[in-house]
Amino acid sequence: MPADVELDLLVPARDDRRLAAPPGDGDLVRLFARERADARVRANMVASIDGAASGTDGRSGSLGTPADRRVFAVLRALADVVLVGAGTVRAEGYRELPVAAHLRAAREAAGLAPRIELAVVTRRGDVPRGLRGGPHPPFVVTGAGGAERARAAVGADRALVVPGARDPDSPDLRAAVHVLGARGLRHVLAEGGPRLLADLLAADVVDELCLTTSPLLLAGDAPRPAMGASALDPARRAWLRHLLHASDGTLLACWDLRAPVGSGT
Question: What's this model's pTM, rounded to 2 decimal places?
Fold first, then answer.
């Protein structure tokens, strides 16, 4: 983790407040920590200034900056499970999800298990090759059509078969979040891709969106952070919880998707 990454907390306004660079990440941990008793789905995405959710190589990781990677590590350290689409697993090369060394004590203090679980969402029940086998297979969230393949890949106890009401072959994401919570995985970090985020928004299970704006312009036809077959109708309201700014121009916003107490909404 770069030692010279400085972050200003712009919202809420605090005069000349600096969040220290590592190992002083206690400020960030406190900023992003939530009550453990509350089940929560937090999404984390990155986009260019003009709204592209992936770089010219087709990967979101190429949009990342040191500040984004620093906050990304904190968000993972505070999550029970990372939820991600199978296509993103392949594109981004997901493997094990280690907790950053400088955040392990904070994770333990928050009462979380030492290891971050991974849950892969796949309609067909496919498990990317790099995640097959090994002592800690991921959870696989799938519908009726992918059940047999998922169970064969990761075992019945790791296959979460949650058929959708309208389409049994599509996983019911609201039910999936409930099943994960019943297993003690109450704090879910959804890392995309754009279609999974759109589906999670359509299912109305996302409580909070952390969106990094990378100081890059790409143009082209890259996907947006959330991109589904149909638009949300009505559009979803969001409330800015806090905003961080890095010296390289990166903006890191945290949006509440549930009306905060006292908002009048």
Answer: 0.92
